[in-house]
Specification:
The protein has 17 helices and five strands. The protein is mostly helical. The protein has one domain. The longest helix has 35 residues.
């Protein structure tokens, strides 16, 4: 069991780091368009659709996990005469409904819509910022989640929560400011690491921050939905992935095909050109290889994150999410300064603004950990208060799901508890 926990932690860090890096690399990969011109594969709608397709594969994985648990419980029941076989079979599904009802699917449609919009906004924002800044700015989700928790869930915050929120706010401001200190130099040095001028960098950061508000709203919706249906987190992710994939391929991408605007900037996107570039990438097959790697690492990150949360808890998850952000930055630097980055075309350089970014990141990590400690303190107080009356009930699937990272994008929140 200990080796499984270590494997899950290592898998979460490796897959999560690679997923963020590949998400940026695909925008820096070139191919031939329909007119034979060389251009970058800046296709946020295409990458978003593949993210949701990867989420959909959580459905068969979740089914396999449940089947394995049922087999283990059946074997345990056979060796324990005190446990009736019928009871073991009854409890073998871990509380999951035998069949996913239409009502369950509809309940998850609205959270899926928030997730889809958030993922698309982040995909567009990533066009204009480096992978490290993209990853750090996603720490803003904790601010909006706290706001929605107080406003809609009527959840009280303690002093550690407020201190963590203040530190996160300062850290995000400092990280964002660092983008402008060296945006011009980085744009020249690191190819398309910072994919535009100062105004485009600002737009990218704003889109990423707005996306965090959307994901926080999604969590609030899922809190309500998951209190009404009995579904495991992997099943929830899979259903949302399936719904999102259908919405993208059948409705949204045909619409953006004919919308006005520059191609590949988030409004208009030529899907026919995207398919053409897949087979005319430079070097050959580079684009489909990076897209496939991104989808597979995202799937691995989702599954590993689920096991980390269930086996080690949400606070551990928070700590290692901060480590993931650091590894993304180190990976980007490694790309730029080694032959892996194709002589500086990939990754990002270390310049004068990086010192400011590092300081902001340190403050952001501190705030995230302090906020998580506030959640732990709240849980401990509730546990002590009710230890002589009845056990504390963590808001069940929601606690695991919020911290699991099993989304198109991960979440940096801590446990919710309820008396």
């Amino acid at each position: 069991m200990e080796s499984f926990k270590v494997f899950s932690l290592v898998g979460m860090l490796i897959f999560g780091t690679l997923s963020s890096i590949f998400s940026k690399i695909v925008y820096q990969t070139e191919g031939k368009d329909l007119n034979g011109h060389t251009k970058l594969f800046r296709k946020p709608w295409a990458t978003t659709s593949l993210m949701f397709l990867a989420m959909a594969f959580c459905l068969p994985i979740g089914a396999a996990v449940r089947a394995r648990k049922r087999r283990q419980q059946r074997r345990a029941a056979e060796h324990d005469s005190s446990t009736p076989l019928l009871d073991s079979h009854h409890n073998g599904g871990d509380g999951e409904e035998k069949h996913t009802s239409i009502r369950s699917i509809l309940m998850l449609a609205l959270p899926m819509a928030f997730d889809l919009v958030a993922t698309l906004l982040m995909s567009v924002g990533l066009l204009y910022v480096t992978a490290s800044i993209y990853q750090m700015l996603r720490g803003a989700e904790i601010l909006f989640s706290a706001l929605f928790a107080v406003t809609f869930l009527h959840r009280p915050l303690n002093k550690l929560h407020y201190l963590g929120i203040a530190a996160c706010t300062v850290g995000i401001v400092v990280v964002g400011s660092s983008s402008f200190l060296g945006s011009g130099d980085k744009d020249k040095e690191a190819g398309n690491g910072m994919g535009g001028d100062a105004s485009q960098v600002l737009l990218g950061m704003l889109l990423i921050i707005v996306a965090q508000a959307m994901q926080a709203a999604q969590v609030t919706m899922e809190d309500y939905a998951m209190s009404s249906v009995k579904l495991e987190p992997l099943t929830v992710v899979g259903i949302e992935g399936l719904l999102g994939t259908a919405a993208l391929f059948l409705v949204l991408m045909p619409i953006v095909q004919f919308l006005p605007g520059p191609e590949g900037e988030g409004i208009h996107e030529d899907s026919l050109e995207s398919l053409h570039m897949l087979t005319h990438s430079i070097p050959r097959w580079a684009i489909p290889a990076v897209l496939a790697a991104n989808s597979l690492t995202l799937l691995g990150y989702n599954v590993a994150g689920m096991f980390v949360t269930s086996e080690l808890g949400a606070v551990t998850r928070t700590v290692f999410e901060s480590a993931r952000t650091l590894f993304v930055w180190l990976g980007d630097l490694l790309l730029f300064y080694t032959p892996l980055g194709l002589n500086g075309k990939l990754g990002e350089a270390w310049d004068r603004s990086s010192y400011v970014q590092a300081a902001g990141f340190a403050v952001l990590v501190t705030g995230t950990l302090v906020y998580a400690r506030g959640d732990q303190k709240e849980e401990d107080e509730l546990r002590a208060k009710h230890s002589h009356h009845r056990p504390v009930r963590a808001v069940p699937e929601v606690t695991d799901y919020i911290m699991s990272g099993a989304k198109a994008e991960d979440m940096q929140l801590a446990c919710y508890v309820s008396a």
